[in-house]
Structures are given as structure tokens and as C-alpha cells.
Description:
alpha+beta, Rossmann fold, Elongation Factor Tu (Ef-tu), domain 3, 15-stranded mixed β-sheet, 7-stranded mixed β-sheet, eEFSec_C
Amino acid sequence: xxxxxxxxxxxxxxxxxxxxxxxxxxxxxxxxxxxxxxxxxxxxxxxxxxxxxxxxxxxxxxxxxxxxxxxxxxxxxxxxxxxxxxxxxxxxxxxxxxxxxxxxxxxxxxxxxxxxxxxxxxxxxxxxxxxxxxxxxxxxxxxxxxxxxxxxxxxxxxxxxxxxxxxxxxxxxxxxxxxxxxxxxxxxxxxxxxxxxxxxxxxxxxxxxxxxxxxxxxxxxxxxxxxxxxxxxxxxxxxxxxxxxxxxxxxxxxxxxxxxxxxxxxxxxxxxxxxxxxxxxxxxxxxxxxxxxxxxxxxxxxxxxxxxxxxxxxxxxxxxxxxxxxxxxxxxxxxxxxxxxxxxxxxxxxxxxxxxxxxxxxxxxxxxxxxxxxxxxxxxxxxxxxxxxxxxxxxxxxxxxxxxxxxxxxxxxxxxxxxxxxxxxxxxxxxxxxxxxxxxxxxxxxxxxxxxxxxxxxxxxxxxxxxxxxxxxxxxxxxxxxxxxxxxxxxxxxxxxxxxxxxxxxxxxxxxxxxxxxxxxxxxxxxxxxxxxxxxxxxxxxxxxxxxxxxxxxxxxxxxxxxxxxxxxxxxxxxxxxxxxxxxxxxxxxxxxxxxxxxxxxxxxxxx
Length: 608
């Protein structure tokens, strides 16, 4: 871990020392039964300098890891560089109290995400742990580039969004109401193409008269003695919109670690969010990236010792004999429950705001949890035999993508949070057609064989987001290209495993008519090289204009005979029907088949 990161963790390291105290290890230090708290993780996202950290500070009553820009470089540069965590308690709404399974209090944990374009991978990683999202918009500037990208990330990771129109105090009082209403209409129009079209909007001034100095060391940051404006209304809206998150203690532990730092004499503290399963003091957990297992020495939730924690909880965990420098971000899990992979089958969908093309074999950035690596993909979809013809011939160019109405439907289709609709098991027995690129004007599920340049560790079903982070930051474009779910992993270089993946390309060989022998027999030539034995193609179908026939065998040197007895034309009718036509042998070749067989659909004909 860099030296400045150690400095940044100094404050929270002091706070976290209580985690490592022996009294917390077995829960005996707790004087009474702890209040059951329903924790809801809220992402605070938006463009750089929109006031996200000021908003988190105005809302929060408890600070945690890297909150409020503790990082020295954050203070120096005046922007958020890392994920910051803080929290505040609220009264549990009555509608939740009736169904909250014994919870007595509501806690909102705020995940303050960076807004700078270069830190979008940090935003993507942080957004995957949230239940709800606050999209912060600067009232003086409106929706900006990173606002739009954060909205895309929010569509993939959350079902509830509240738009926070910040810096209300920066609007002239005389025209404030008019400008605020104009901004509301503009934002509503931008949201109309998303699943958040009815999202509520709350106007606030998180830090009156001091927003321009957010995170800086300037004296201006301390000038305002005015309290924040609109925070109470925002909390009321959050309570009104919050729903009971789906939580389960079942399944293996998946702990997403966002910070890791040492405490002298105690061990290493890992802070993060439990995405699935449970964790308890004295439990053995695995750090799969480091290939080590360690025992949980103590657990703490916002400075309070705990004997256990479950899905959705944000915790600090103390373990011994773990090198903090080796794991700034990563995963802890039930031993043996995670897999490290470099090749995987992923169900994918395009992100409609991406204007580029996601081409097969082209490189892109792939984010899985807190990890981003370079990757390439081979895209494929369900074979459409009805459109392609009985032999699987390439469909007409007009069908290369969906029609305009289908494109419109695809563009407006709602995006289920966390891409939950992509989790259907992959069917290896099906045939799939190779695609040169990911199709954008369709709502159908597509797939990709994703190959990573470096291995990553995740669960099956993990959410993946593909992006082009190399794009010019000055361009007003969305860099997020597509998203998906990992359905299966394939061991790199395992040709036998790849052969199970039945992805084919449409192929065709063409030849010429040598002569028409009679109404049902035609002699052809030029279909294959003179040195190729034509008899290996015997029994395969050929197309000749409107006629469909079968190769019966060779005819002399480099020629072959075809049977067209299925039609009822006479000799003259045949000659007229095939005038100017070429012989076409249509077939499929499965790209992962080591024997490279030629296959025709329908009758299962195969030729090597």
C-alpha cells in the first residue's frame, strides 16, 4: 500500500483499534443485547465537484473508512479519490417495521464515490454494494458527463434512485424558483429514457456558501456557519423510498474488501461489505487472491463490537498474520467457495448510451467487483434456423440487426438491478451463432466468451461491466459498453472444454454448372480444389437458384454429379430456373471444434 494510503488510514486505524481488543472477540464486552439494525447501503454518485462529500458529511453522524476525503491527496486536490464510508441512523418506517423480521432501527450507510472521470472504475466497484442511490447534480451546471455515466451504473446496480439537486444557495434568490423548476424539467427529460423516470428530486444546499471549496484546505471551507438546507426533506424521502432489502444468511460468505490497513500489536483490519452469507468471530475465512486462510479475531460495525455480521452489513474485521500491503482491495470468503478464472462464458447486454461498437476480439476494460483488467470477447447469440434457411445460410443483410420498432423497444426496456435477468443457466447443448459484434438493437440475451489478460476471483453469477476507459476524458461520451453475468468458467487452454461450446459460423462454397444432363441430374465443377476428393461431400445439400439438390459423387476429373429429383420441372424448366445461378454448398463450422467439421442443420450431416 502506498505511504499516503497509510497516512489516510491513520484516523480510521485509531478508531478501529477497538476491533482488535480481546473483549470484542467473543462478544462478552457487550453490556446488553445489541439493537437489531437494518442496514441499507446508499451510493452517493455524481460528477466531480457536485458536492457529494459535502452531502455525505451533512447527512452522517458516524464516520468510517476514508470518509469525508481523509486521503491527503484528496485534501490537496479538492476531489474525492477513494470510496468513503459513513452512516446515520433513522427511525424505521412503520411499513417496514411490520415486515422487518425483528429489526428495530434503520441505518443508512453512505458510499461516497469519486466523481472524476479517471476514477470511474472505483465508482463501478463501489456501486456494486449498494441498495439505493443518490444522484447528486450541481444546480448551476446540470447533468454532466460523469452524471450520465453514474446514472448508467445506477441502472445496473440499484432499483431506487433519488436525485439530489445540490447547491441551491448558489442560485440567485430572485430567480431561484424559476431556475429550479427549469432544472427539474431538464433532469426529468434526461431520466425519461431510464427506469428512474419517476425518481423523486430534492433540492438541497449541503454546504451553504462553501461548495466551491469542497475537500480543500482553504479558509473558505470554514466560512459558512449556516446549517445545510433540505437535509431533513432528503432523509424523509429516503425513508419513504427505502424498501426491505433481500437478505439471507444462507450460502457461502462473500466479503467485498475496500480498504485494508495494519494496527500495530493487533493485526490487520479489513473493512468492507458482506455481499452474501455470514461472518462470525473465530470463523476461518479465505483470502483467495493471496491463497491464505485466517481466523476472524474480532468484528466491528461503526465502532461497535459485534460477534457476527450478515449480508448487507458494513464491517471492519481484524485478522492476524495478514500482509496489509498485499491486499488493498479484494475478497474474503468461505474457504473454497470462490473461483479464479481467465476464460468465462458471460450472458451480456449492451448499454444503450454507448455509441461505439463492441466488436469480437477487440480489447476493453472489464470490472469485476473492485478489480479491473483488460479483456477481449467473442460474441454469439441463439441460432435462428427459420430466418437462416434449412442449411443455416447467412440471413439477408437487412436482418443483420433488429428492425426499427425492435430497436426502439430495446432502447426503452427497463434494466433489472444487478442484471438479475441474465442469471439463467447456460445451455451447452444448444447451437449458437457467431457474431462479429454485440448487437445493440435487440432486447434478446446475447453471450460472450470472455478472455482476461489477468485472472480475477469471483463467484459464478458475478456482475461484470465492460468499458473503454482509454477514451479521451474530454469527449462527452459514455465509456461503459456492456454488462453481464458470469455463467461458467473455462480453464484456459482446455480445448476439450471449449469444444462443448457449440458456436458456429455460417460458411458457403460456390461452384458452377458444367452441364445439365437431364431434368434431375446436373454436373457441376469448381466447388472444391482439384486435389480435394469430392466424394467426401456426398449426401450434402446444395442450392442452385430455387432448386435444392444433393451431391451424389464425383464425375470424371474435378467434377461432380448432383441429384435434383425433388422438383417436378421438365428439362426446359430446369434450364430456365438455373440460368445464371451458382451452385452453393451452405454449412456451419463450429469455431471451437478441433476437427473443424462441416455441418449442415436439419439432417445432422457432418463432413471433415
